[in-house]
Specification:
This protein has 117 residues and is an alpha+beta fold. It is built from four helices and four strands; from the N terminus they run H-H-E-E-E-H-H-E. Strands 3-2-1-4 form a four-stranded mixed β-sheet. A hairpin with a 2-residue loop joins strand 2 and strand 3. The longest helix has 18 residues. The protein is elongated and about 75 Å long. It starts with a helix and ends with a strand.
């Protein structure tokens, strides 16, 4: 890595695309508009319960380079990220890369798979 960087400088770094997988907790609260209700004049408003963040997590495969996000793959709940799944995700990523970064797709790129514990 260091030898190649010393030889190619920033051109080498421009070629790198990183893929990172991560479990993301998500919560979609109601907006103020969504929580509005019609009530008769003088009657009390609806009781609002304190919301709790959900403990649901979504596995996400994110492909990005120095310019930003290229493709995000939301892994279906209960699905195992195995070699078969990854091959399918990589095929979709290549299509997205060819559209979002056509020059990088044509010149070639280095895929850095960030799978460190």
């Amino acid at each position: 890595f260091i030898n190649r960087y010393n030889k190619e400088k920033d051109n080498f770094l421009d070629k790198i695309v990183t893929m990172d997988e991560s479990a993301v907790a998500y919560h979609t609260p109601e907006t103020k508009e969504q929580s509005k209700q019609w009530v008769k004049k003088g009657s009390p408003g609806p009781i609002k319960f304190k919301t709790q963040e959900t403990r649901v997590k979504q596995m996400v495969l994110a492909f990005h380079d120095k310019e930003g996000l290229i493709y995000t793959n939301m892994v279906p709940r209960g699905k195992t990220v195995n070699s078969e799944y990854v091959v399918g995700a990589l095929k979709i990523f290549l299509k997205k890369l060819s559209k979002k970064r056509p020059d990088k797709f044509k010149r070639g790129f280095i895929l850095h798979w960030d799978n460190a514990p």
